[in-house]
Amino acid sequence: MNTSENFDEHVEILLSDVLELYGYDFTGYSRASLKRRIVRLYQLDGFVSFAEYRYKIRTDAGYFNRFLEQITINVTEMFRDPEFYKTLRNEILPKLGTYPFIRIWIAGCSTGEEAYSVAIFLKELKLLHKSLIYATDINSAVLENAAQAIIPMSKIQLYTENYMAAGGSEQFSDYYTANYSLGKLKDDLKSKIIFSTHNLVTDNSFNEFQLILCRNVIIYFDRPLQTKVFELFDNSLEKFGYLALGTKETLDFSTISKNYERLKGDKIWRKIN
User: Fold this and answer.
1) How far apart are the first and last CA of the chain?
2) Which positions of the chain have pLDDT values less than 50?
3) Same structural domain for residues 48 and 92?
4) Which structural domain range is residue 144 located in?
5) Residue 144: CATH number of its domain
6) Rounded to an integer, what is the distance from CA 248 to the centroid of its chain?
7) What is the pTM of this model?
8) Which secondary structure element, helix H or strand E, spans residue 42, and what is its range?
């Protein structure tokens, strides 16, 4: 790699390539974390020059999928932030249960743990039969993993603890079957989830929802892109619907904040206008 200034220039050219050739727009992503991931992959795969790296990404669609997988954030777990899920289970989902049909969008769903977590609580509240969860991500490779409904048994203890802390009312082991190192989540959970690619940067609203979860995704966007995505969510959310963000994310200074009231103690907002 050359100087930092030259590298910044290389990154911008590479991002332009990715937009032009593959239609993925990363220009509004926070540069610091994006650069770290681009450099990590460059070093990991042993490229001798940035020109070689760029050529590989431009000409090899299979390698581009690897690039996409490495630079998008795919850190997730079932019932992550149990206090949030407790609020969801005890306050939000029962209110949505008064609707004849419940539509939920989980944006940036990664490998699907959040979608399955929501499905479990809908089932416990006897609402799953009249619900549909749209779980979307920019990365088609992680969506393929999500659709398998497989969880590593090495994480079962963590997921069980999270589930119990979030107020789960059954045995977590009832929701999966174990097979050596992997667990398979029950089919009825998956039956109410639609996994689909969606790019928050370039794609439009595709339905009207009563609940949108986009947790720990917005933090990687710069302010103009955050504004754009918040407006997309606003256009996709019914009046009195709920928007849930990650622990370090907020609607408070956004252009749509006047349309929302924040629930006490949680990063959850209700649309009031």
Assistant:
1) 51
2) none
3) no
4) 82-271
5) 3.40.50.150
6) 15
7) 0.87
8) helix 31-44
Q: What tokens appear for 73 in the block?
A: 């954030």
Give the model's pLDDT for residue 4.
58
Give 179's strand partners.
182
Phi, psi for 186 (deg, rounded to 5): -65, 145
Same domain, 132 and 230: yes
Using CA atoms, how far apart are residues 220 and 26, in angstroms rounded to an integer? 10
> For residues 227 and 241, what is the distance between their CA atoms, to the nearest angstrom?
19
Long-range contacts of 50-58 (CB under 8 A, 24+ apart): 50/1, 50/2, 50/7, 50/10, 50/14, 53/14, 54/10, 54/13, 54/14, 54/17, 57/14, 57/17, 57/18, 58/17, 58/21
Res 1: pLDDT: 52
Token representation of residue 53: 């790296």
Q: What is the pLDDT of residue 219?
A: 87
Helix (DSSP H) and strand (DSSP E) numbers for the chain? 11, 10
Q: Among 16, 42, 71, identify where a domain stops.
A: 71
3-class secondary-structure state, position 58: helix
Distance CA 144, CA 129 (A): 24
